[in-house]
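Side project, low priority. Logging it here so it doesn't get lost.
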Amino acid sequence: MTATPTTACPTTPTPTTATTTTHSPNGRSECSPADRVTKSLLGYGVIAGPIYVSVSLAEAFTREGFDVSRHAWSLLAIGQHGWIQIANLIGCGLMLIAFAVGLRRALTPGAGANWAPRLVAVYGLSLVTAGVFRADPALGFPVGTPQGPTAVSWHGMVHFLAGAIGFTALAVACFVLAHRYATERRPGWAWFSRITGVLFLAGFAMVAASGGSQLSTVAFIAAVVLVSGWIAAVAIDRYRQVAYPAGARVPTTS
């Protein structure tokens, strides 16, 4: 009886495949260089959201005068330690752009292969823009700022517009990928994506319309945590799809 060799990147049993594999001397089937690049790019999607949320929450609970129930995370980019949040925004934005490139490679061909990566890239670019053009001090933060609304500067307006465009693009990306999962007959992922898109868009609409009420601010934080987890989950799922090319048995969930 001959033992079946383990595989690092299982190949399809059919004659044609979109994935090229090589075989090492010990019989292992290894992913092609192109697939390794794709998986590396998808990896940025796994870590971008958790890093952004973790750094933001750590700052929110340690910065003097910051009230997590009243102040937007954008305000953390202001003040003596504002560089931390600026680096967080720009770094995570760049990681999401890299993830978008990997997502484009992983989804091709098929539904959403063009628009989902573009929309995710727009969100990543919006984070970078928000880090470069900071929000204006408001609602008593940083310490010494008047409690009421303050005048909006030109860079504050750019910051706001970048957020509005980026958040909308990400919500639409949720629905685009929901359609992709539906075409793959994976209803669980399709509904997860739809619900995430609805809740994230609703949270953003609430915080934009309320002027910073406690309920809307907390709801939007919850929505950001949810959509960040969704991005990481999608990145892991598409990573696994690359690891198991079309025709191979993929241990997927619905």
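Brief comment: Confidence is low (pLDDT under 50) at residues 1-8, 10-29.
Revisit when time allows.
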